[in-house]
């Protein structure tokens, strides 16, 4: 049976539109959000509950003090000050956050990943060696960054920054998530709670088990505040 041209056009448009409409999911704003049928037993939503608009004030969108240098007196020689929806409520649903990173000479922001965001980092002061590693086969991209330089760390890839200068360094990062999250690789692998079975890590890293157990006994610093 022959179909009319308008019918076929409509069918084609529906075929194109339906996958786009059905495939979309909102981005995750936390590690997981287990579904429940009874809302009374739910304690989190994907994001934050919204404040009554009539109660919103300008201070909900304001946070002072990001110009103040943070202490880098720790074994990493770095300090990350995060500005997320947790301390700036006005960021809720806006898909953006930022962080100030302070470095002492030879300070490092160790290899880590943001499971929910791409990062754009700008050097405000000093000189940094920065880079990221792709997914398998793990290609490394690095660059020496000077004041005013910008680098992009693609979504969820492992990356790092190291102060190679003789003075303090400061960087400012922007993220396309109100809660980008952070997984510091060494902390996650050797300092999880509870610890990963040492036999697993011994086999995975092809190291002596005593080395793995030594690493698991270390105090792995969290430089994110």
TrEMBL record:
Residues 1-23 form the signal peptide. SUPFAM superfamilies: RmlC-like cupins. May play a role in plant defense. Probably has no oxalate oxidase activity even if the active site is conserved. Keywords: Apoplast, Disulfide bond, Glycoprotein, Manganese, Metal-binding, Secreted, Signal. Mn(2+) binds at residues 112, 114, 119, 159. Transmembrane segments: none annotated. Belongs to the germin family. Oxalate binds at residues 109, 114, 119. Disulfide bonds join 33-50. Pfam families: Cupin_1. One of its GO terms (molecular function) is manganese ion binding. It is found in: Secreted, Extracellular space, Apoplast. This is Germin-like protein. Residues 64-213 form the Cupin type-1 domain. Its main location: secreted. GO terms for cellular component: apoplast.
């Amino acid at each position: 049976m022959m179909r009319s041209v308008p019918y076929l056009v409509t069918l084609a448009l529906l075929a194109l539109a339906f996958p786009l409409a059905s495939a979309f999911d909102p981005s995750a704003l936390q590690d997981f959000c287990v579904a429940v049928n009874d809302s009374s037993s739910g304690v989190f939503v994907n994001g934050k509950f919204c404040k009554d608009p009539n109660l919103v004030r300008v201070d909900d969108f304001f946070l002072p003090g990001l110009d103040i240098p943070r202490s880098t007196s720790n074994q990493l020689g770095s300090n990350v000050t995060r500005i997320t929806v947790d301390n700036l409520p006005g960021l809720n649903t806006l898909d953006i956050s930022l962080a100030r990173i302070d470095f002492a000479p030879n300070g490092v922001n160790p290899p880590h990943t943001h499971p929910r965001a791409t990062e754009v980092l700008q050097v405000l002061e000093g000189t940094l060696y920065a880079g990221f590693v792709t997914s398998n086969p793990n290609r490394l991209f690095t660059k020496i960054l000077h004041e005013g330089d910008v680098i992009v760390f693609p979504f969820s890839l492992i990356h790092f920054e190291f102060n190679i200068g003789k003075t303090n360094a400061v960087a400012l990062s922007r993220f396309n998530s109100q809660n980008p999250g952070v997984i510091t690789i060494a902390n996650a692998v050797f300092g999880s709670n509870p610890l990963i079975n040492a036999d697993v890590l011994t086999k995975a890293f092809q190291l002596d088990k005593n080395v793995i157990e030594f690493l698991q006994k270390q105090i792995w610093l969290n430089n994110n505040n």
